[in-house]
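Quick note —
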Amino acid sequence: VDCFVGNMVSALILPILLFSVASVRSDCYDVNTIDRSARDDFCEQPVFVNFAPKTEEVKMLDNVCHTLFPLPDDPDTFHLYISRVFCDGSNDVISQIITQMELGVTRKTTIYRTFTDYIFGYAGCDTYLVYRCPNFGGKPDDIIVDIYGVSPQCRPIGLSCLRKVEEIIKENGLPEQEFYVLPMKLPHRCVTQQLCLQPPNPFYNKLPSHGLL
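Predicted structure written out below.
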């Protein structure tokens, strides 16, 4: 399958610590994953976060764009850039390393946290549901359970699809919580070319303590 990857820079230096976790923590919720992989996101990118747990930080966001670049020596590992546009028009970029563990399950690492993402449902509206379980570094105190939606479409999720989201969450035995629909009114600022970062990472001080989205 031909996938658009944009122009790529061959050299990449990033001060990021990779944690090798052999097994998923026992305190993760047992959800039913679906057949979707990081390579699917790569082929359909850019991918946008269209809803997330309602927190004060999330409510400042207008849109969040994910773009992936495969590592040259490992087809199951990607460098993920998360470009966030805030409602005031400002922008920041977060970087993560993402590794495909199995279909529907990925391990993501930042300099602060390591967590496992489970894709556990499709709600229509091109929206896939992701449940995030922390492996190292914990989760924000104002989030009951870390669930968010991703879509290749840069538009807000519809009301009918939100009802389907609620059904899927209930079917998987996850706690109910309030979500925030990202408005996506401002132009996105997706990263279309892999960044070459020399230590110290210029985004270091902008990274939130919990590696949001």
